Amino acid sequence: MLSREEQQEIEAELTHYPYKRGACIEALKIVQRHRGWVSDESLHDLAPLLEMSVHELDNVATFYNLIFRQPVGEHVILLCDSVSCWLMGYEQIRAQLQQELGIGMGQTTEDGRFTLLPMPCLGDCDHAPALMIDEELHHDLDGEKVTRLLGQYD
Ligand code: FES
């Protein structure tokens, strides 16, 4: 069930749209901000508020890379896997992250601290390779910088 805070925040969002479904992304983000991810149960709770079917809402939620449909770690690393980053060393950065974290892409560390996910272009191509940790963008990555970055979250 949605919490009172979630419900209030979603109702406030609904006032900004002529159709309730227009607020669906914001509503999903609100739930994710409170719970870390969007479960099937949350979709069922949200859909009637937005006058959408659960299936429609699930399609939106799975289309947007920044809505997580599975539990994620405390910190989410979004590694850009588009063309400029491929050309500028994506493979080495991916391999290093996987090795230092001991997980593959799409996985979460055993201690629940990090989830590693691929992400299409982060819009920072002239400073490739790039990644985001939570909301923060990091670019011009090399091995040393990646180790330093991970160290900041120890
Ligand atoms: S291709 Fe990686 S930031 Fe654009």
Bound molecules: FE2/S2 (inorganic) cluster
Provide the spatial order of strands within the biggest beta sheet. 2-1-3-4
Strand tally, please?
A: 4
Strand content: 5-15%
Order of helices and strands: HHHHEHHEEEH
Output the CATH class name of the largest domain: Alpha Beta
> Which oligomerization state do the chains in this entry correspond to?
single chain
**Overall CATH architecture of the largest domain:** 3-Layer(aba) Sandwich
Mean pLDDT over the residues: 96
Shape: elongated
Tell me the number of structural domains. 2
Structural Rg = 17 Å
Q: Distance between the terminal alpha carbons, to the nearest Å?
A: 34 Å
Which stretches are poorly predicted, pLDDT < 50 over at least 5 residues? none
- CATH topology category name of the largest domain: Glutaredoxin
Explain what you see.
With 154 residues, the protein is an alpha+beta fold. The chain has two domains: 4-63, Arc Repressor Mutant, subunit A; 75-151, Glutaredoxin. Helix content is 45%, strand content 12%. It contains seven helices and four strands. It has helices at 4-14, 24-35, 40-49, 54-63, 83-87, 90-101, 143-151, and strands at 75-80, 114-119, 131-133, 136-138. A four-stranded mixed beta sheet has the order 2-1-3-4, with helices on one face. A hairpin with a 2-residue loop joins β3 and β4. The site of FE2/S2 (inorganic) cluster has 12 residues, from α5.
